[in-house]
UniProtKB/TrEMBL annotation:
<protein>
    <submittedName>
        <fullName>ACT_7 domain-containing protein</fullName>
    </submittedName>
</protein>
<feature type="domain" description="CASTOR ACT">
    <location>
        <begin position="65"/>
        <end position="119"/>
    </location>
</feature>
<dbReference type="Pfam" id="PF13840">
    <property type="entry name" value="ACT_7"/>
</dbReference>
<feature type="domain" description="DUF2241">
    <location>
        <begin position="7"/>
        <end position="58"/>
    </location>
</feature>
<dbReference type="Pfam" id="PF10000">
    <property type="entry name" value="ACT_3"/>
</dbReference>
<dbReference type="InterPro" id="IPR027795">
    <property type="entry name" value="CASTOR_ACT_dom"/>
</dbReference>
<dbReference type="InterPro" id="IPR045865">
    <property type="entry name" value="ACT-like_dom_sf"/>
</dbReference>
<dbReference type="InterPro" id="IPR018717">
    <property type="entry name" value="DUF2241"/>
</dbReference>
């Protein structure tokens, strides 16, 4: 598998983001002790440890939408453009950035609407 070069120009990041919706529901949980093995992400804060975990749990479910473009960590504007588009639609968005991709966590019941907004944003950037 050949690694793709990271994209840093905003128009190219938007045009290539190809948002992909994960079928599972995700939950933000404060954990005591070691985080669950199936955690997507673990965030260590002064107040405690948060894990983003899949499955059926108590709490508010979120959908994970991955922007499949390999955005550069130094790229400017992708998070702002995506969060602004979702905010315009009244959709909350929590962003977790990995080395290769950005992952958006949106309210589960608004996942399809969020995906359409992101697809529209990507289509308008090209």
């Amino acid at each position: 598998m050949t690694a793709r070069q990271p994209v840093s120009e905003l128009a190219a990041m938007l045009a290539g983001m190809a948002p992909a919706l994960d079928a599972r529901a995700w939950f933000f949980e404060v954990v005591d002790g070691p985080p669950p093995a199936d955690a997507f992400a673990v965030i260590r804060e002064d107040e405690g440890i948060t894990a983003i975990v899949p499955g059926e749990r108590a709490g508010t479910p979120f959908a994970r939408i991955t922007l499949t473009v390999h955005s550069a960590l130094e790229g400017v504007g992708l998070t702002a453009a995506v969060s602004a588009a979702l905010a315009d639609g009244g959709i909350a968005c929590n962003v977790v950035a990995g080395y290769h991709h950005d992952h958006l966590f949106v309210p589960w019941e608004r996942r399809d609407e969020a995906l359409v907004i992101l697809q529209r944003l990507a289509g308008g950037a090209g």
